[in-house]
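Fold it.
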Amino acid sequence: MPYRWTINPYRGCTHSCHYCFARAYHAYLDFDVGDDFSQRIVVKTNIVDVLRRELSSRSWRGDPVAMGTATDPYQPCEGRYRLTEGVLGGLLAFDTPISMLTKSTLVVRDLKVFQELDRGPGASVAMSINTLDDGLRQLFEPDTPPAQSRLEVLRRFGCAGVSTTVLVAPILPFLSDGEREIEELLRACASAGVKQVAGIALHIKPGIRPHFWPWLREAQPDLYPKYQSLYGNRTHPPQAYLQEIAERFTRVRDRLGLEGSPHRLVRSSPPEPQQLALAV
């Protein structure tokens, strides 16, 4: 990870993204990585008090903190518990910069706090968006808001002066990895005022395979053998494929005058030997 410190107020996520690498973490709690991940959400109700106590330590140097690295801090239960809101207040009080990654439009609730953070220690907001195709979105991440709604939120943050980024992730082989699909999405990002984009190809970690492979076989029987052939028992697809997608993404990005992400919020696991992780 590009950050030493991360905060996750929740474990599990009702966005229900079938490819989510964080599903594997639910097994640490003796929950399954399928329905339990999207239905049994762990809420760290004392996180704000603990955070403020730790930030008040003389040893704290105000290092950058990332949120959204495991599960979404703005998933629906945030509307009830408001833990992410409390965390942001704590970071602001102790002059600590924040980088937020989310798929939720609820983040706009805290726009003014992000503005205060941006004027002080620093703040940036990134949205994870992998397709403009709403049918594809509903298939792979059924309980997330549409891409255009997420882009509209980024437009509002950009107009408010807060740095915004789109993480195109995961890029789905045979579905959203074509130059036309990538260009359509990046053009939409540019139209929303986003200047920084990054991408990462789908990876299938061992911990999520008990959920992902059976789901894909049932949901997309024609796609299943293609993915089996491309991935096999590997986390990442072959290096040649990753290189091709990296070059395609970079070509489109440069053509549209967009920049790469300065924070590289694109790596969720180290690459396997001889594998090139797409991070462009």
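The mean pLDDT is 92.
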